[in-house]
Protein backbone atom coordinates (compact mmCIF):
# COMPACT_ATOMS: atom_id res chain seq x y z
CA UNK A 1 0.00 0.00 0.00
CA UNK A 2 2.82 2.38 0.84
CA UNK A 3 4.51 2.04 -2.56
CA UNK A 4 1.16 2.22 -4.42
CA UNK A 5 0.15 5.33 -2.46
CA UNK A 6 3.49 6.96 -3.28
CA UNK A 7 3.10 6.08 -6.97
CA UNK A 8 -0.40 7.59 -7.20
CA UNK A 9 0.13 10.82 -5.28
CA UNK A 10 3.82 11.56 -5.89
CA UNK A 11 4.24 12.44 -9.60
CA UNK A 12 7.99 12.56 -9.22
CA UNK A 13 8.16 8.95 -8.10
CA UNK A 14 8.16 7.80 -11.74
CA UNK A 15 9.78 10.76 -13.51
CA UNK A 16 12.65 13.09 -12.77
CA UNK A 17 12.73 16.86 -12.61
CA UNK A 18 12.41 19.11 -15.67
CA UNK A 19 10.73 16.41 -17.73
CA UNK A 20 13.51 13.83 -17.49
CA UNK A 21 12.51 10.21 -16.76
CA UNK A 22 14.36 8.17 -14.18
CA UNK A 23 15.72 6.11 -16.98
CA UNK A 24 17.50 9.23 -18.23
CA UNK A 25 15.54 9.83 -21.48
CA UNK A 26 14.42 13.47 -21.84
CA UNK A 27 10.82 14.33 -22.61
CA UNK A 28 10.04 16.19 -25.81
CA UNK A 29 8.94 19.27 -23.84
CA UNK A 30 9.32 20.81 -20.37
CA UNK A 31 6.84 19.80 -17.68
CA UNK A 32 5.76 21.64 -14.55
CA UNK A 33 3.67 20.52 -11.58
CA UNK A 34 0.13 21.92 -11.53
CA UNK A 35 -0.64 22.39 -7.82
CA UNK A 36 -4.40 22.39 -8.37
CA UNK A 37 -4.56 19.28 -10.56
CA UNK A 38 -1.72 17.48 -8.81
CA UNK A 39 -0.18 16.42 -12.10
CA UNK A 40 2.50 17.38 -14.61
CA UNK A 41 1.46 19.71 -17.39
CA UNK A 42 3.24 21.33 -20.33
CA UNK A 43 5.21 24.42 -19.45
CA UNK A 44 4.02 27.59 -21.24
CA UNK A 45 6.06 28.35 -24.33
CA UNK A 46 8.60 31.15 -24.04
CA UNK A 47 9.90 33.41 -26.74
CA UNK A 48 13.66 33.34 -26.42
CA UNK A 49 16.13 36.07 -27.26
CA UNK A 50 16.90 34.38 -30.54
CA UNK A 51 13.27 34.63 -31.61
CA UNK A 52 13.13 38.31 -30.67
CA UNK A 53 16.36 39.04 -32.60
CA UNK A 54 15.04 37.26 -35.69
CA UNK A 55 11.80 39.24 -35.51
CA UNK A 56 13.73 42.52 -35.27
CA UNK A 57 15.95 41.54 -38.18
CA UNK A 58 12.95 40.73 -40.35
CA UNK A 59 11.28 44.04 -39.42
CA UNK A 60 14.47 45.97 -40.23
CA UNK A 61 14.83 44.16 -43.56
CA UNK A 62 11.23 44.95 -44.46
CA UNK A 63 11.69 48.61 -43.51
CA UNK A 64 14.89 48.85 -45.59
CA UNK A 65 13.20 47.25 -48.60
CA UNK A 66 10.29 49.69 -48.35
CA UNK A 67 12.65 52.68 -48.10
CA UNK A 68 14.62 51.45 -51.10
CA UNK A 69 11.41 51.03 -53.11
CA UNK A 70 10.36 54.60 -52.33
CA UNK A 71 13.82 55.88 -53.26
CA UNK A 72 13.68 54.17 -56.65
CA UNK A 73 10.20 55.60 -57.26
CA UNK A 74 11.45 59.14 -56.53
CA UNK A 75 14.44 58.70 -58.85
CA UNK A 76 12.26 57.40 -61.68
CA UNK A 77 9.80 60.27 -61.18
CA UNK A 78 12.58 62.88 -61.40
CA UNK A 79 14.08 61.17 -64.44
CA UNK A 80 10.70 61.31 -66.14
CA UNK A 81 10.51 65.03 -65.38
CA UNK A 82 13.97 65.56 -66.87
CA UNK A 83 13.01 63.66 -70.02
CA UNK A 84 10.03 65.97 -70.49
CA UNK A 85 12.31 69.03 -70.24
CA UNK A 86 15.00 67.88 -72.68
CA UNK A 87 14.14 68.80 -76.28
CA UNK A 88 14.72 65.38 -77.82
CA UNK A 89 12.45 62.81 -79.38
CA UNK A 90 14.94 59.97 -79.02
CA UNK A 91 14.66 57.49 -76.19
CA UNK A 92 17.65 57.93 -73.85
CA UNK A 93 19.05 55.80 -71.08
CA UNK A 94 19.86 57.40 -67.71
CA UNK A 95 23.51 58.21 -68.52
CA UNK A 96 22.64 59.83 -71.85
CA UNK A 97 19.80 61.76 -70.26
CA UNK A 98 22.01 63.19 -67.51
CA UNK A 99 24.71 64.13 -70.02
CA UNK A 100 22.15 65.98 -72.13
CA UNK A 101 20.78 67.79 -69.08
CA UNK A 102 24.30 68.91 -68.08
CA UNK A 103 24.89 70.22 -71.59
CA UNK A 104 21.61 72.14 -71.53
CA UNK A 105 22.35 73.68 -68.12
CA UNK A 106 25.79 74.85 -69.28
CA UNK A 107 24.26 76.42 -72.35
CA UNK A 108 21.64 78.21 -70.25
CA UNK A 109 24.30 79.54 -67.87
CA UNK A 110 26.29 80.83 -70.84
CA UNK A 111 23.22 82.60 -72.26
CA UNK A 112 22.42 84.10 -68.85
CA UNK A 113 25.99 85.39 -68.46
CA UNK A 114 25.87 87.03 -71.89
CA UNK A 115 22.49 88.60 -71.18
CA UNK A 116 23.66 90.02 -67.84
CA UNK A 117 26.73 91.77 -69.21
CA UNK A 118 26.89 95.26 -67.73
CA UNK A 119 24.31 94.41 -65.06
CA UNK A 120 25.38 94.11 -61.43
CA UNK A 121 24.31 90.63 -60.30
CA UNK A 122 25.42 88.77 -57.20
CA UNK A 123 26.76 85.32 -58.16
CA UNK A 124 27.54 82.12 -56.26
CA UNK A 125 31.31 82.68 -56.47
CA UNK A 126 33.25 84.73 -53.94
CA UNK A 127 34.99 87.29 -56.10
CA UNK A 128 37.15 90.40 -55.94
CA UNK A 129 37.80 92.41 -59.10
CA UNK A 130 39.70 95.62 -59.78
CA UNK A 131 39.92 96.79 -63.39
CA UNK A 132 40.36 99.87 -65.51
CA UNK A 133 37.19 101.53 -66.76
CA UNK A 134 36.10 104.58 -68.74
CA UNK A 135 33.55 105.98 -66.29
CA UNK A 136 35.85 108.59 -64.78
CA UNK A 137 36.46 112.22 -65.59
CA UNK A 138 38.26 113.14 -68.78
CA UNK A 139 42.02 112.94 -68.46
CA UNK A 140 41.87 110.86 -65.26
CA UNK A 141 42.49 107.16 -64.75
CA UNK A 142 39.46 105.37 -63.32
CA UNK A 143 39.09 101.90 -61.85
CA UNK A 144 36.05 99.81 -61.14
CA UNK A 145 36.32 97.58 -58.06
CA UNK A 146 33.82 95.00 -56.85
CA UNK A 147 33.42 92.35 -54.18
CA UNK A 148 30.87 89.52 -54.16
CA UNK A 149 30.29 87.34 -51.08
CA UNK A 150 27.73 86.16 -48.52
CA UNK A 151 25.93 88.90 -46.65
CA UNK A 152 26.80 89.47 -43.00
CA UNK A 153 25.72 92.30 -40.67
CA UNK A 154 29.15 93.99 -40.51
CA UNK A 155 29.97 93.66 -44.21
CA UNK A 156 29.11 97.23 -45.25
CA UNK A 157 30.83 98.66 -42.17
CA UNK A 158 34.03 96.73 -42.89
CA UNK A 159 33.88 97.70 -46.55
CA UNK A 160 33.39 101.38 -45.72
CA UNK A 161 36.31 101.38 -43.29
CA UNK A 162 38.59 99.70 -45.84
CA UNK A 163 37.71 102.25 -48.53
CA UNK A 164 38.01 105.25 -46.19
CA UNK A 165 41.49 104.13 -45.11
CA UNK A 166 42.66 104.33 -48.75
CA UNK A 167 41.29 107.87 -49.20
CA UNK A 168 39.95 107.14 -52.67
CA UNK A 169 38.31 109.71 -54.90
CA UNK A 170 34.96 107.97 -55.33
CA UNK A 171 32.84 108.54 -58.44
CA UNK A 172 29.89 106.20 -57.87
CA UNK A 173 28.90 103.05 -55.99
CA UNK A 174 26.15 100.45 -56.33
CA UNK A 175 25.00 97.30 -54.57
CA UNK A 176 23.03 94.23 -55.64
CA UNK A 177 21.64 91.33 -53.61
CA UNK A 178 20.34 87.90 -54.53
CA UNK A 179 19.22 85.66 -51.69
CA UNK A 180 22.00 85.76 -49.10
CA UNK A 181 24.53 86.90 -51.71
CA UNK A 182 25.59 90.52 -52.07
CA UNK A 183 27.76 92.34 -54.60
CA UNK A 184 29.23 95.81 -54.03
CA UNK A 185 30.85 97.78 -56.86
CA UNK A 186 32.34 101.26 -56.95
CA UNK A 187 34.31 103.46 -59.34
CA UNK A 188 37.17 105.61 -58.13
CA UNK A 189 39.52 107.96 -59.94
CA UNK A 190 43.26 108.43 -59.60
CA UNK A 191 44.56 111.99 -59.48
CA UNK A 192 45.43 113.37 -62.90
CA UNK A 193 48.97 114.15 -61.80
CA UNK A 194 49.74 110.56 -60.83
CA UNK A 195 51.51 108.29 -63.29
CA UNK A 196 50.29 104.86 -64.29
CA UNK A 197 52.59 103.05 -61.88
CA UNK A 198 51.08 104.96 -58.96
CA UNK A 199 47.58 104.14 -60.19
CA UNK A 200 48.43 100.46 -60.48
CA UNK A 201 49.92 100.52 -56.99
CA UNK A 202 46.72 102.07 -55.67
CA UNK A 203 44.66 99.43 -57.51
CA UNK A 204 46.75 96.73 -55.85
CA UNK A 205 46.04 98.30 -52.44
CA UNK A 206 42.32 98.35 -53.21
CA UNK A 207 42.49 94.71 -54.26
CA UNK A 208 44.22 93.69 -51.02
CA UNK A 209 41.75 95.69 -48.94
CA UNK A 210 38.78 93.95 -50.56
CA UNK A 211 40.41 90.54 -50.07
CA UNK A 212 40.84 91.37 -46.37
CA UNK A 213 37.12 92.16 -46.12
CA UNK A 214 36.32 88.86 -47.83
CA UNK A 215 38.63 86.84 -45.59
CA UNK A 216 37.35 88.55 -42.44
CA UNK A 217 33.89 87.13 -43.13
CA UNK A 218 35.33 83.67 -43.78
CA UNK A 219 37.12 83.76 -40.42
CA UNK A 220 33.86 84.16 -38.49
CA UNK A 221 32.52 80.78 -37.20
CA UNK A 222 28.99 81.36 -38.53
CA UNK A 223 30.33 82.22 -42.01
CA UNK A 224 33.22 79.77 -42.08
CA UNK A 225 33.63 77.59 -45.22
CA UNK A 226 33.51 74.59 -42.88
CA UNK A 227 29.87 75.35 -42.06
CA UNK A 228 28.80 76.69 -45.48
CA UNK A 229 28.62 74.94 -48.84
CA UNK A 230 32.01 75.02 -50.51
CA UNK A 231 32.40 77.82 -53.07
CA UNK A 232 35.14 78.43 -55.57
CA UNK A 233 36.90 81.65 -54.58
CA UNK A 234 38.18 83.86 -57.38
CA UNK A 235 40.32 86.89 -56.56
CA UNK A 236 41.32 88.46 -59.87
CA UNK A 237 42.92 91.81 -60.61
CA UNK A 238 42.77 93.28 -64.11
CA UNK A 239 45.02 96.02 -65.48
CA UNK A 240 44.16 97.09 -69.01
CA UNK A 241 47.39 98.56 -70.38
CA UNK A 242 45.65 99.72 -73.54
CA UNK A 243 44.18 102.66 -71.58
CA UNK A 244 47.39 103.55 -69.78
CA UNK A 245 47.94 106.56 -72.00
CA UNK A 246 44.86 108.32 -70.62
Automatic annotation (TrEMBL):
InterPro entries: AIG1-like, bHLH_dom, HLH_DNA-bd_sf. SUPFAM superfamilies: HLH, helix-loop-helix DNA-binding domain. The keyword Transcription regulation applies. It is found in: Nucleus. Keywords: DNA-binding, Nucleus, Transcription, Transcription regulation. SMART domains: HLH (SM00353). It comes from the Eukaryota. Residues 59-108 form the BHLH domain. GO terms for cellular component: nucleus. Coiled coil: none annotated. GO terms for molecular function: DNA binding; DNA-binding transcription factor activity; protein dimerization activity. Its main location: nucleus. This is BHLH domain-containing protein. It comes from Fagus sylvatica.
Amino acid sequence: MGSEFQRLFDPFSHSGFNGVLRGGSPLSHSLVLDSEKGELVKAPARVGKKGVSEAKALAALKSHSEAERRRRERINTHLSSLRSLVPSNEKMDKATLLAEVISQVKELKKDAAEASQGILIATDDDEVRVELCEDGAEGAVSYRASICCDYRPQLLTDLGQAIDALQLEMQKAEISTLGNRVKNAFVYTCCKGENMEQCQSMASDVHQALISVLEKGSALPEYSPRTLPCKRRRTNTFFDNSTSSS
